[in-house]
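Title: [Solved] tRNA (N6-threonylcarbamoyladenosine(37)-N6)-methyltransferase TrmO 3D structure

Original question kept below for reference.
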Amino acid sequence: MQKQPITFQPIGVITTPHKKQKGTPIQPYAARDVAGEVHVFPEYRDGLKDLGGFERVWLIYHLHRASSAKLSVIPYRDVVERGLFATRAPCRPNAIGLSAVRVLELDVKSGILKILDVDMLDQTPLLDIKPYVPRFDSYQNSKAGWLDDLGEDRDIADDRFPIR
Ligand SMILES: C[S@@+](CC[C@H](N)C(=O)[O-])C[C@H]1O[C@@H](n2cnc3c(N)ncnc32)[C@H](O)[C@@H]1O
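Solution (posted by the thread starter after getting help):
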């Protein structure tokens, strides 16, 4: 098994009102109606064709201000340590975030999507967009491990994961 580095190029940038980690919603469900924009770079705009009609899209992005990776974290919604990969904490070996956001408007020509429910910091580099398809992406009543038995019920980030 080779461990070759992988390089990704951003396809755009996500603008949001969240300038600081503290106070930023920890997932889109906690950011209901918070507006942002996706700005897709000119060379990728043709790929937006046919995205109209999808109520939500997955945004896959670089958590570019995350601190160095930790394999054991106290997640926002808990008070005890959990294995990183059982959490959505931002301090990951590959700092990739994903959010299913609502699409209000799509303009293929300018490459701008007006979106709602944003939980990422302003100027977050965008790596990919995929349509959210309920039939593919929603498994009702799936078990959610420790999250089904919460110690805390926090929706908004504090400063436990320092950012750069
Ligand atoms: C818990 S993570 C979840 C992100 C995404 N929804 C996921 O599940 O991959 C969300 C938190 O990460 C932090 N965050 C958001 N965008 C970031 C960025 N670009 N760099 C570093 N931290 C970020 C904010 O504190 C935000 O509340």
